[in-house]
Amino acid sequence: MSEPMQERLEGLLSPLVAGMGFELWGLEYAQRGEQALLRVFIDRDGGITLDDCALVSEQVGALLDVEDPITLAYRLEVSSPGLDRVLFKPEQYRRYIGARLKLRLRWAVEGRRNVQGRLVACDDEAVSIELETGEAATVPLESVHRARLIYEMGSEQPEQRSVSDTDE
């Protein structure tokens, strides 16, 4: 998604979603020809229900109809980020220190375009990952095209830290 569109949509939707008691986890916007798709991911303590998604979809749809930031015909999807959630922002990475994740990169870093391992650290510029081989890799966040948690069934997942836990 282009930066101006991303910022505009986040600026419009974040206060609305927060006012409804949810966190705007992230957005994905894709445009193909004369049509577009907007995915809105919401979260909150205790998880998200189908009714939550329907309620937010209704309110977001109404706001987008009034503000009209997307000039094409578009489809709106509202969803929970899920157990294998995509990470969009540095503070989200910090909530999952110790978790396994998979990164798809825009360009090769240390000879790799795909990186998988355990998240060791994150600041506003880069993530540090312990690779499956035991090696360490530091990946600039600007090179990350998509980051997704790897859900490990049957093993203890690191507990999601609250926003206040990551502000120290």
Spatial separation of the terminal alpha carbons: 31 Å
Which structural class is indicated by helix and strand composition? alpha+beta
**Helical content band:** 10-25%
Shape: globular
* SSE series: HEEHEEHEEEEE
Number of strands: 9
- Detail the poorly predicted runs: none
Radius of gyration: 17 Å
Major sheet, described briefly? 6 strands, antiparallel
Integer average pLDDT: 90
Strand order of the largest sheet: 4-9-5-6-7-8
How many helices? The count is 3
Which key phrases capture this entry?
168 residues; alpha+beta; 6-stranded antiparallel sheet; 3 helices; 9 strands; globular
Report on this structure:
This protein is 24% helix and 39% strand. The chain has 168 residues and is α+β, with helices and mostly antiparallel strands. Helix 1 crosses helix 2. The chain has a six-stranded antiparallel beta sheet. A three-stranded mixed beta sheet has the order 1-2-3. The longest helix is centred in the middle third of the chain and has 18 residues, at 50-67. The model has no long low-confidence stretch (mean pLDDT 90). The protein has three helices and nine strands, in the order αββαββαβββββ.
Could you give the topology of this structure?
Layout: H1 3-19, E1 23-32, E2 35-43, H2 50-67, E3 73-79, E4 86-87, H3 90-95, E5 100-109, E6 112-122, E7 126-131, E8 136-140, E9 144-149
Structure, briefly:
The chain is α+β, with helices and mostly antiparallel strands and 168 residues long. 24% of the residues lie in helices and 39% in strands. The strands form two sheets. Strands 4-9-5-6-7-8 form a six-stranded antiparallel β-sheet. A three-stranded mixed β-sheet has the order 1-2-3.
